[in-house]
Amino acid sequence: MTAATDIAAPSLLDLVGDTPLLRLKSIEAKAGTGAEVWAKCEFANPGGSVKDRAARQMILDALAAGLLTPDKTLIDSTSGNTGVAYSMIGAALGVPITLVMPANVSAARKHITTAYGTTIIYSSELEGSDGAIRMVRKIVAEDPARWYFPDQYSNPSNPRAHYLGTGPEIWHQTAGRVTHFVAGIGTTGTLMGTGRYFKDHHAHVRVLGMQPDDALHGLEGLKHLPSSIIPAIWAPDGVVDDTIWMPTDEGWDVSEHLVRDEGLFVGHSSGGNVAAALRVARAAGPGDVVVTILCDRGDRYFAPLAWDRKNVY
Ligand SMILES: Cc1ncc(COP(=O)(O)O)c(C=O)c1O
């Protein structure tokens, strides 16, 4: 990997990916089996999350294919990190962005995305992320010429970002020692793309998906597939070896452990991922190298100061 001080990036987009891989010694100590546990620091991406990778790939692929033309606005449904990532990349490339979000999304999401110049359309807070998906499909169907709809749940560029980036990076950063890859499921892009890379190139690596164990859960960014619209990119056969069902409390407990004992203030999906990695490490042994993802920072879930010219400093 290149040292950060060696990087002279011609574009903000070049700062996406090549994230550090961090060893989690206190998690290894908890497991107590001699297995190693490492995590990709996706919060180090310029938009602050793993979703920078998917948004960059979807936008670049759409520009290259002539699908995203200067007369179009990019629209998608996301209450989460993908919205921040689209907004950042849209601002950097001059692509207008509109996002459909449930009305009850956090103030942090509203303030961060609108600071980049993004327009928000609100869907029913009672229908959650599935309601936002239905609404964006309706808006696009009514005026297809106006919009470019990447549809992160159906777009092969989403997992492709991880097939081309996250997977090979983990392989190189562990010098080919990785034995297990564990990741939670939102759009399923991270797990499908990274998992497919391992199965195509290093098939012995075990690929494990983590899902909240209940439809009503507190692991923001993740989906409980049995009660959700199934993403079209979800094709687990031959890629995903097993599923780990994660209670919200277990993910939150590990998030608290990470901030206090590792100095890692990460979001709750990251806590869920590391909790899943800990379970895998407990059943593994010396020589095993378990890798997971730290999706974003914990402070993303706080309300930032509104970006308001009226403020006097
Ligand atoms: C905080 C957080 N964690 C995890 C995920 C899951 O990633 P993916 O969409 O690649 O499955 C997402 C995105 O959806 C997210 O925003």
Care to describe what's here?
By secondary structure, the protein is an alpha/beta fold. The chain is 38% helix and 16% strand. The protein has nine helices and ten strands. It has helices at 25-31, 51-64, 81-93, 107-115, 128-142, 157-173, 189-201, 248-262, 268-282; strands spanning 21-23, 36-41, 73-77, 97-102, 119-123, 147-148, 180-184, 206-212, 242-246, 289-294. The strands form two sheets. The protein has a six-stranded mixed β-sheet. Strands 5-4-3-6 form a four-stranded parallel β-sheet. Helix 2 packs across helix 3 (81-93) and helix 6 (157-173) crosses helix 7. The longest helix has 17 residues, at 157-173. The chain starts with 20 loop residues before the first strand and ends in a 19-residue tail after the last strand. The chain binds pyridoxal-5'-phosphate.
C-alpha Rg (nearest Å): 19 Å
Counting copies of identical and different chains, the oligomeric state is: single chain
Shape: globular
- Could you describe the largest sheet, including whether it forms a barrel? 6 strands, mixed
Sheet-strand content, in percent, reads 15-25%
